[in-house]
Inverse folding.
């Protein structure tokens, strides 16, 4: 701080500059808090509205619920679990999301290591092809994919639902960017100690990209948890149904019962939020114990 | 290895060059094979599912694009007929134009907003974990719910936004019911929803910046803006690059929010490319044309991404 004051042309006013700067900083901190909290309210509002609607019996689109429901009730939640195998549906979604996340972690981290640390001829081109797999809309892949899984006899199975999500260009790209940020001196030091690529990958790279891994866990899980079109096409049996499809089914079934639909929405968001909060702690821990800090 | 080489060369120089060459060649060939195996071992787990479940269907879609097909009757070969038909149809230009409009409005909003949020929530703010969780909420909420809420907020007659504008004496626009304001409505809701996504990616990048760099800069008297432009942004550039590439790819494929908020209306004013693909396939049973349009979109996105990857050397710095 003192150095900075010295850099200003008039040396005499060091003290004045410092106090003005302190005031400015104080005002900045207050303004920052105000903006962040106002923004958070704006962010939270739609979710709050969802919760309120789920607690308002007989809520509908024309009958906008009051901010504080007159006689709040958990009836919508009871109805949700009473009329459908909703617990089974949640378990199905959970199973698919966990499988997808674990497999994507393996496929993404290994591929990211290859693209960041193992130069080979045509690497840029291969990476380009990987990225290209993100660029065609799923809507048009559905029909060929359906035909393909039909020949494999995998329609209406968990395996058929998760196989197309096993590799994610998004995850590979995310982790590659993170590995690129890990200083190469760390690998070189390990190489001098006689470590091979597999050892460098597990002992040096993975611990150093924990924030990115936690990010990928959240997004891989979320991608599976919220995926709609593919599970809808491939899973036919009611006992294999996933959450988004069950929610969409509610909309057809209870066109006027927005409290039930919103109760389902609240339930669908909660596990994601819990995972995010958990992952966030992990992100901070990971950075604190990594070698690059 | 260099150490042992130096030792042998000290013993005798000239013969070493002649004799060791075939030996070294054999060893490098062996090493090369082992290296190739290592590369394969790291690549195959992802390459196999990508080839089987994405690239394969992509090639199949290319084949479909050369045929007339209603998903039920056998395909009928039309060559490039679908492409010619699409290129002469003014709707094709319109849907691409609307998509670009969306991207141009959405990208700066979501990137600058997400960056500001990440920077703010990376400071020693009280309850920042809680706040991060709240900003991430819209990301995990389904578009069906988000669209519903935003249609309500932006309702022309009794929405909160227009009521607030009326309070300041401004007559609010018709938002999603007005052809001129339908796309801005979608852009606002999308930026709002994805802000937390950009924030999370950039936060992970910010966490990786060593704090001693900031301490050093502070000692040197660098102010906040100086530190932002000289340390934060350059060191964050791999994350920024990632956000921009992903957002552009996703932006070209914008669909869910359009489908849920306006359905492409009013009067096709917010109809985007993927919505058109969806309608062609599942509403009109013109799968051939839909595949052709997908491949046109693919070529555009690929070109834009290649330009970005080529250009990254100018501004992205890796550790």
């Amino acid at each position: 701080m003192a150095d900075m004051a010295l850099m200003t042309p008039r040396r005499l006013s060091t003290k004045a500059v410092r106090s003005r700067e302190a005031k400015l900083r104080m005002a900045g901190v207050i303004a920052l808090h105000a903006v962040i909290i106002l923004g958070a309210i704006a962010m939270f509002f739609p979710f709050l509205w969802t919760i309120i609607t789920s607690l308002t019996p007989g809520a509908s689109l024309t009958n906008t619920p009051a901010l504080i429901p007159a006689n709040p009730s958990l009836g919508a939640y009871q109805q949700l679990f009473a009329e459908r195998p909703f617990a089974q549906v949640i378990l199905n979604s959970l199973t698919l999301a966990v499988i997808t996340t674990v497999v994507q972690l393996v496929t993404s981290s290994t591929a990211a290591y290859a693209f960041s640390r193992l130069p080979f001829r045509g690497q840029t081109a291969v990476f380009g092809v990987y990225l290209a797999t993100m660029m065609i809309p799923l809507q048009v892949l559905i029909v060929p994919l359906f035909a393909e899984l039909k020949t494999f006899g995998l329609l209406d199975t968990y395996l058929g639902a998760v196989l197309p999500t096993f590799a994610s260009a998004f995850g590979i790209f995310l982790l590659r960017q993170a590995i690129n940020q890990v200083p190469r001196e760390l690998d070189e030091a390990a190489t001098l100690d006689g470590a091979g690529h597999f050892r460098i990958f597990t002992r040096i790279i993975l611990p150093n990209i924990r924030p990115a891994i936690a990010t990928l866990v959240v997004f891989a899980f979320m991608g599976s948890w919220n995926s709609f079109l593919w599970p809808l096409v491939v899973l036919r049996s009611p006992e294999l149904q996933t959450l988004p499809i069950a929610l969409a089914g509610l909309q057809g079934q209870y066109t006027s019962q927005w409290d039930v639909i919103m109760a389902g929405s609240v339930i669908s968001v909660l596990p994601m939020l819990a995972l995010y909060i958990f992952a966030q702690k992990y992100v901070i821990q990971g950075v604190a114990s990594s070698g690059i800090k | 290895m260099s150490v042992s080489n130096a030792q042998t060369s000290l013993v005798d120089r000239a013969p070493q060059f002649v004799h060791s060459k075939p030996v070294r060649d054999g060893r490098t060939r062996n090493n090369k094979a082992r290296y190739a195996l290592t590369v394969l071992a790291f690549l195959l787990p992802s390459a196999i599912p990508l080839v089987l479940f994405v690239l394969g269907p992509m090639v199949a879609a290319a084949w479909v694009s050369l045929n007339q097909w209603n998903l039920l009757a056998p395909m009928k070969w039309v060559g490039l007929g679908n492409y010619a038909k699409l290129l002469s149809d003014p709707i094709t230009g319109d849907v691409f134009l609307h998509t670009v409009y969306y991207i141009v409005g959405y990208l700066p909003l979501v990137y600058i907003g997400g960056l500001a949020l990440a920077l703010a929530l990376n400071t020693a703010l009280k309850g920042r974990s809680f706040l991060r969780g709240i900003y991430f909420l819209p990301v995990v909420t389904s578009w069906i719910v988000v669209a519903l809420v935003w249609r309500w907020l932006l309702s022309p007659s009794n929405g909160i936004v227009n009521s607030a504008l009326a309070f300041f004496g401004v007559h609010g626009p018709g938002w999603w019911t007005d052809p001129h304001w339908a796309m801005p409505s979608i852009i606002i809701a999308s930026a709002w929803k994805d802000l937390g996504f950009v924030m999370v990616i950039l936060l992970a990048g910010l966490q990786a910046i060593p704090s001693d760099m900031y301490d050093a800069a502070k000692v040197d008297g660098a102010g906040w803006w100086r530190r932002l432009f000289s340390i934060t942004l350059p060191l964050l550039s791999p994350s920024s690059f990632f956000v921009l590439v992903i957002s552009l790819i996703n932006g070209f494929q914008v669909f869910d929010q359009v489908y849920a908020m306006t359905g492409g209306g009013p009067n096709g004013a917010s109809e985007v490319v993927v919505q058109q693909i969806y309608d062609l396939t599942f509403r009109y049973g013109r799968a051939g044309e839909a595949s052709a349009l997908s491949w046109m979109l693919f070529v555009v996105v690929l070109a834009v991404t290649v330009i970005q990857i080529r250009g990254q050397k100018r501004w992205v710095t890796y550790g």
